[in-house]
Amino acid sequence: MALAGAQLLQSWAMAVGVEGVTMFGFEFVVSELKKQSFMAQVIKTLKHYTDAVLGVAISAISIAVAAARMPELAVRAVRVIGSYGVYKALNKLARREPSVVLTDTSTVSVINLDPNKAVEVWVDGSKVSFATAPTTDGNGNATITLPSALAAGTHKVMVNTGFRAAFTEQYIS
């Protein structure tokens, strides 16, 4: 009985360790891809859900290609990546989590802010001034054209409508 408990604990520890390392590695890869603007080119229309889409896609492709040759622990790790993608998508949808992305050098796209409210935009710590303040639609979404294009590089963008805000640090080219 003690041996079965020890084996169970060992199996659990290995699975949790692999899952943790896999999630950390996946987050690292996604952040590096964002810096290279890979996601901006490949999944332009799904930018608010790129982490979720990539997680599920990587998991599905990995299982389809190599499942027969993978040990059980590797299959579990690949499943975690898919689970992470589903989690990210559901978290954003169910919670209506605010999100902001730079869709190009002069356009900011936001979702899930307060509906029908004026939007404040901050880029690299400076408030952006507009001739007419941008506002969200009835769903809290907006596409905002910046007064001037941003230079290539990494930019920090924050938007808020008073009670809801979103932040991103994104590389644009």
Given as residue ranges, the uncertain stretches (5+ residues, pLDDT < 50) are none
The topology string of helices and strands comes to: HHHHEEEEEEE
Shape: elongated
* Overall mean confidence score, pLDDT: 76
Quantity of strands, as a count: 7
User: Which strands sit side by side, in order, in the main sheet?
Assistant: 4-3-6-7
SS strand fraction:
15-25%
Terminus-to-terminus distance: 60 Å
How many DSSP H or I helices? 4
The secondary structure category is: alpha+beta
Q: Biggest β-sheet: count, sense, barrel? A: 4 strands, antiparallel
Computed CA radius of gyration, to the nearest angstrom: 20 Å
**What is the number of domains?**
2
**Helix share bin:** 40-55%
Outline:
This protein has 173 residues and is α+β, with helices and mostly antiparallel strands.
Model description:
There is one protein chain. This protein has 173 residues and is of the alpha+beta class. The chain folds into two domains: 2-94, no CATH class; 99-172, Sandwich (Immunoglobulin-like). The chain has four helices and seven strands, in the order ααααβββββββ. It has helices at 2-35, 38-42, 50-66, 72-94; strands spanning 99-104, 107-111, 120-123, 126-127, 142-145, 153-160, 165-172. It has a four-stranded antiparallel sheet with strand order 4-3-6-7, with no helix packed on it. A three-stranded antiparallel sheet has the order 1-2-5, with no helix packed on it. The radius of gyration is 20 Å and the shape is elongated.
